[in-house]
Fold this sequence. Notes:
- The chain is mainly alpha-helical.
- The chain has helices at 15-40, 48-51, 68-78, 80-88, 93-116, 133-150, 153-173, 190-199, 214-231, 237-258, 271-294, 302-308, 311-326, 329-333, 338-361; strands spanning 2-4, 184-185, 188-189, 365-367.
Amino acid sequence: MEQQTPPGAPEGRLASLDALRGFTMFWIIGGAEMLRWFLRLFANPLPPAIAHQFEHSAWVGMTAWDLVMPLFLFIAGTSLPFSLERRLNDAAGRRGVYRHLLKRSALLYLLGMIVGGNLLYFDPGRLYLFSNTLQAIACGCFVASLVVLHLNVHRQMLACAALLAAYALVLRFVPIPGHAPGALEPELNLARHVDRLLFGPYVDGSAYAWALCIPAFGASVLFGALAGQLLRTAWRPRVRLLVLAAAGLALVLLGILFGYWMPIIKHIWTSSFALYAAGWSFLVLAVFYAVIDVLGCRRWAFGFVVIGTNALFIYALTQFLGEYVTGDAREEFAAVPPLQGLALSVLAFAVFWTLLYGLYRKRIFIKL
């Protein structure tokens, strides 16, 4: 990781991107728990329709909580056009960009193994080779970066469509030995089968698939890169906003329609899921862009900006603590009265935010 101490925000930086990155992380580092406990003050237990939104879908479908990970990938993509252009203008040129991409992807992948793959247990029996959002970002950003580096915007759109189409066709028509093609069950699908073949005893024990999903991860990041390039155009801000919203609505509709042929399944990142989640990501970005950059209402988002400027650091920290420190504390925490649970969740969030605010005040931004 690099520790940077810049004199200030880069010229022309969009405040909405930092705020949206922080908004995404807000839910991961305690926002979801605070909201859940707050709602339980009025309805305990929560109605099933509301409680369901705080959990991942069992298999088919998408909840609000399911959107956090694809939004994380999408936001990683929005920064790509800005960062790639800066690095291309460096003395190292395109060759230096390739070196940086390989280094950053490798470090992100390794960090993912630390926070989600049990690497620090130093026990091969507990090791997972691919099991974490950071590893999905590492692979997805590498794929998307190559596309952005070598193709213009129109061809990037075609490449995004090709990645999703190829992945969908493979899932639908390549059979698993001993089974008919097209199986999309939790324990019987091609994506999980490929993981078992590649990772052997080091396969993730969950229902999630990883290796075969890399093209879809790349498409999710590429959607974000396309949004980032839209925000860099010379179009008027209101025109950009309309295009963001229109793209979001179109992708949501396309995801729903495609879902009739290929179900929306986050666990194996089906192409319909990538489209549907990208649509909602475009719409969320449109809201932040409208309020912060078009209307100029920025003060309310300061708390999110503080989180967003060190999003990778706090994500890794909270995942590490969740994996190696808390253990079964969440189950015990779930049994406390709502008011006490709300107070404890606010306190835990305040500790993380105060740490981030200290880094922000000192202009220390930790990233890869």
